């Protein structure tokens, strides 16, 4: 007697991706491989390798079959991304509307570091190059991944992950394209970014969708206090102790100076200049932030900007738990599909169990669900008289 009941046929993962209507747009093999990816990627011991997916998901296909699914398989990545974005938007926007709290769209990039191949390597990883790592403060070899998250009151969900190619679309244009795909804001909403993305083009893209922008500024940016043209770092010398006041954000306090007026390319915005409490006007301690919502207080602007931190946590968790830093597929299409499936796996851990869970708690819960599904499969197969050798074969312990 053949094994009639497989884990995938009754799994919570299958029920989750059915909700994305993948079964209507993808073939059965593609649907099954997506399910297997999530099943393997959430398991303890997953390192981001294809062999881990095959082994941990207990699929009966060979590793090369799965590699072909990633590199050459016929399936619509753009539809899958649209489904991911739709689910993230529905959850985050609903949270913002229910709680009346601001919605944040967070933009940043990270580097998936790789080992630079020998010049004699026959199959090097595609599209890898040297990129500056702000974390390591040096050039590293790998892929630069531009990422956008949606966040509201602790709910953090992936919206966009894409490789940056030096000779392709610029990072500024990518961010503008992402913002264009967002729904029009119906509640207070803010884009958050570092100094790389704080520019007129990005600000205007957010405005068109009803979002203000809060971003870090380089201290060489030009401002016009009382009509005089001057860099922020040069203006620092004119700021006295009686011009600043102390603001506490989280567990840290800062001396802050508020400027409201024009910048190069921007008619009117708030610029917050701040220094740590014990480093007022000390060399290299000045930080500057821009906010296009001039009605916000200085305290609120800094508190809102601190909401950018979840994207750093996302990078760390996605690299440490979902293999975002360790994938070894080589073709550009396979890499892009790994990024998509990583986002889908994160989304399953976050909202796939009925209510939002941070990734750490979500992983524990989905692992428990998978184990229960496995036990239920064995129990039902035994009741149906399936030979134990067939069960061993399915579980790869024959």
At CATH's second level, what is the architecture of the largest domain?
Answer: Alpha-Beta Complex
- What average pLDDT do the residues reach? 91
> Given the structure, what is the number of helices?
14
**Helix content, binned percent:** 40-55%
Given the C-alpha coordinates, what overall shape results?
elongated
Computed CA radius of gyration, to the nearest angstrom: 24 Å
What do we call the CATH homologous superfamily of the largest domain?
Transposase Inhibitor Protein From Tn5, Chain A, domain 1
Strand residue percentage: 15-25%
Low-confidence stretches: 1-9
> What's the β-strand tally?
12
User: What distance lies between the first and last C-alpha atoms, to the nearest angstrom?
Assistant: 16 Å
Structural class assignment: alpha+beta
Quick description:
The chain is α+β, with helices and mostly antiparallel strands. It has helices at 12-18, 22-25, 28-41, 50-56, 63-71, 77-99, 171-180, 200-208, 232-235, 298-305, 309-322, 332-351, 359-383, 388-394, and strands at residues 103-113, 129-133, 138-152, 155-164, 189-193, 212-217, 222-223, 230-231, 245-249, 252-263, 266-276, 287-291.
Describe this structure as you would to a colleague.
- The chain is α+β, with helices and mostly antiparallel strands and 398 residues long.
- It folds into 2 domains: 7-75 and 357-394, no CATH class; 79-118 and 125-313, Transposase Inhibitor Protein From Tn5, Chain A, domain 1 (Alpha-Beta Complex).
- 40% of the residues lie in helices and 22% in strands.
- It has 14 helices and 12 strands.
- It has helices at residues 12-18, 22-25, 28-41, 50-56, 63-71, 77-99, 171-180, 200-208, 232-235, 298-305, 309-322, 332-351, 359-383, 388-394, and strands at 103-113, 129-133, 138-152, 155-164, 189-193, 212-217, 222-223, 230-231, 245-249, 252-263, 266-276, 287-291.
- The strands form 2 sheets. Strands 1, 2, 3, 4, 5, 6, 9, 10, 11 and 12 form a 10-stranded mixed sheet that branches. Strands 7-8 form a two-stranded antiparallel sheet.
- A hairpin with a 2-residue loop joins strand 10 (252-263) and strand 11 (266-276).
- Helix 5 packs across helix 12 and helix 12 packs across helix 13 (359-383).
- The longest helix is centred in the last third of the chain and has 25 residues, at 359-383.
- The chain is elongated, with a radius of gyration of 24 Å.
- Residues 1-9 have low confidence and may be disordered.
